[in-house]
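Record 1 of the preview.
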Amino acid sequence: MLQLQVIRDNKDEIIKALNKRKIDADSLLSNVLQLDEKRRTTQTKLDTILAESNKLSKEIGGLFKSGKAAEANVLKEKTGALKEESKQLGDDLNVTAEELQNLLYQIPNVPHDSVPTGTTEEDNEEIYKEGDIPVLNTDALPHWELAKKYDIIDFELGVKISGAGFPVYKGKGARLQRALISYFLDKNTAAGYTEIQVPHLVNEASGLGTGQLPDKEGQMYHVTADDLYLIPTAEVPVTNIFRDVIVNKDEFPIRYTGYTPCFRREAGSYGAHVRGLNRLHQFDKVEIVRVEHPDNSYAALDGMVDHVKEILRELNLPYRILRLCSGDLGFTAALTYDFEVFSTAQDRWLEISSVSNFETYQANRLKLRFKDENGKSQLAHTLNGSSLALPRVLAGILENCQTADGIKIPEVLIPYCGFDTID
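->
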């Protein structure tokens, strides 16, 4: 959520920046400032009346002590009227504050200066590519056929149990899945991230805190009886650890990693491009989350990108990095880098990680602050990244590592799997 003071001081600059997202920010920010002015004016009136009421209460007490009951009763009538007026102003203030908050929730983050202008994923900027795309035999299979051939993932059984988008991993497929999770966590902890296990259900305040609500409400599974949401990513519970927290600046950098299943409705996702593991309603992911001093957040973002690079090098998968354009940039992000693995059998790139800096956008919703050198509260910066999302990594391994003799496991995973080939 954008800070009100920043909007007041930089309205024109914010309008220009949000125009990159094709948003009519002028009328939106004008409405915000009008409501803000109304809220502040109402608050000033309320404070004045409450101060006057307190002053009269003290006078009434003095008059009663002095035996001047008649004068005291006159003032009591006046305080009664002030009480009614203050109640009305308080109600008006609450309504205005709620309207203002809801309007602020509708405004996305301001894109970083380096974000390219564009409307679709076709306008994303490729900034890096690494790895050789393997040449497969003409009879090479896509991962969903390999899964069936080697009996390692059963999509039909998942449909029977839950529905489409809920695969069942079997035998070496399940072991490879577990191996990837352990490997990712070990890489992250070796890089200085503290491993943490978090709930897979969160309350509304948590969804609002990281920006999934109200923006992505239609994509989240809602347990209505308990008013809880199944998490779409570990980013939500991990980052909300710091909701309403003032951290010591000496604690920076704060680095957490966690494995969770993730749940997304993915409404409207149909067709061959979402077949197999390409898009699921339930999938596993290992996440990295950082809380940083604002002066260091972009250096931290670069470090996160380098960290994911190292993992993909060790997996020996061909990949590229995209800087997302303004039209493809997430609602809460200021800058995002997407990693994509090349799926040789499908002849297409598959997104397997997003690494983002949210600057103060989430921190403002979370009220995540730190004390600066002058003892003044400042908003921290939050960042997160997939390290990594498993389904498409697994698809990339199955397709790119297939041979006539079976699927060769990347060397780095063999100690975790306990086998070197799926055959």
